[in-house]
Amino acid sequence: MRCTRTLAACIAVLVLTGAVFAAGYFYDNKYAVSCPRGADAEFAFTSDELDRPLVLIDGWLMDLEGVGVRETFIGQYSNFSYVPGSPSPDGRAVYTLALRAVDMQQPVALTLFVPEVFGDYVLRVDGEEIASRGSGAFAGIVVDGTALLEFDVESAGGYYSGLVYPPVVGTAQVMGMWQAVRTATSGAACFAPLVLAALACAVWAPRRNDHVLVLFAVLCLCMSGACFEPFAWQLGWSGPWLHAAVDALWTAVLSCATAMALIVSGLADSARRRRVVFSLLAVAPLASGLLVGAGIPAFPALIGVNEAFQIVFRLTAWALVMAAAAAGLRSRLADAPYVLCAAMAMALAFAANLLDAGAYEPLYGLWQNEYAALAAMAAFAALIVARGRRMVAHEAAAHELDVQLRAAEQTLAHIRASEDATRVMRHDLKHHANALAMLATEGEWDRARAYACELSEGLAVIAPVRYSRNLVVNAACAAYLAAATEQGVEVRCDVRVPEKLPVRDGDLAVLLSNLLSNAVEGCWRAPEGSRRALRFDADWNGEALCMRCENSAPEGTPSGRTSKRDPAEHGFGLTSMRQIAQRYGGSVTVRHADGLFVVRCVLRLGRQGGAAQTDKSSAMSGRMRNG
User: Fold this and answer.
1) What's the CA gap between 454 and 593, in Å, rounded?
2) For the segment 224-244, what is each residue's pLDDT rounded down to a tens digit?
3) DSSP H helical segments within 357-492, as ranges?
4) What is the pTM assigned to this prediction?
């Protein structure tokens, strides 16, 4: 059954992620959208075609320094060195393209989106400079019949060289809507991980010993920073160190995902292994950042080294995640399916990058690695939630064991006190018997009868050893009712419950503790000299547990306030009592009148198989006058 669920989850991840990739490739790809194509250094468009963003891909002339002029399209070449006859990625090139409005007699104002340029650039329109490095992502242009675009790009040890991404042009309204959609998608990709990181930190703060939570928070923070790149470009931030930071952040995302997978699978369970894993995985982002930020500008030939490093690291990280998933599945670990789902998303991203051969760039949405990272992040978030649920369940079980232990200790203390009282009574009984015998021998029958009545009243105030065979119920009654009896409260108790009840011991203990402790407090708050009485009844009919507690209370007592110093821990506790009752489909009702405070509580637990044997402690009363 578990294998079936794991297989179904993996298939779902593959199908959903694959569908997102396919939809992006065919419907959100700059190279596949319906758009005019340029040719012979000209891009012609009509007024009807201005209802959507126009991607300037084809028809560019590139004048590469030392090579000459050639027609090209934007997006294929990520480096000058790929151009035939160019010996180096460094150099300077001028890209030119004429925009021509076919059916418009009046000038038309357009907005041009300048794509990310990995070097210094100057953008001229009809010979006038309108944008350069650091000026932002948008520039306004006017097409009066034709307008000549010139991108003068210079690279000297940059990450890439030339124009890597095609510009986009359109009317101000169309480009505004286009940018709003892009901002929304990029903002979601940036903000969602930030929220998850904050939640992970909030959960981690009270514990501070969960390495998986720390890694998940760092993963989310790194991904949020990596997805901030489009906003950085719009703000005019650029340069080798920006690209170095982005590369380092994406490498850190893979490092954190790999470390999480190794830890939850048990492959890095010891402190020594964790230190080794963390050290090795921390080196990768640092090496990537230094290579891009400092190495390539100084030694342009390191571009190939960087590409090889990225490929090797990504494949290694994926292999480690797959190995961790396989080890977890073999050991039947609960977290293994989540790791496997994350590995499937990573594998699809690698396959998509290989299959599209650089012929993909989103127009509205995200890149494939961002979609895959979000899918992997969702898988790890589900892993964190599952771990949290198990931890809560374990803590609840530990709490119940603690409740049972404290109940057993209270019951034992009560039994010992009762045994001590019985031992004293047995010792004194000999003296009482001798005294009665002497009175009978001397014929003092009236004195003997009075002595016997006094002895009977003294025996009546001794608390019973057991209120109930149910451990929790007995402990609560022993802790509160017996003590109240000894302090002068008239207590009556009638309990008819089985030894086992279909309710969590922790819930039952909290319910009874609130009910009885506040009833005892109410008795003590009764006016001086008034009758202080408490009655507690509990009955189990096979489907519901019904409890009623009645105690003396002064007139005007508010039904939700306490006189104790710590009302958060004491008080009437009606909120927690009602929450517990609602959890079991029951209710709590309160009535205060005629100097009595009455609380009724019902837990609907459903009919249990077999007739549960109940025990009844005979109606008991204890009377002890003050004074």
Assistant:
1) 36
2) 999 998 888 888 887 778 888
3) 368-441, 445-460, 471-486
4) 0.70
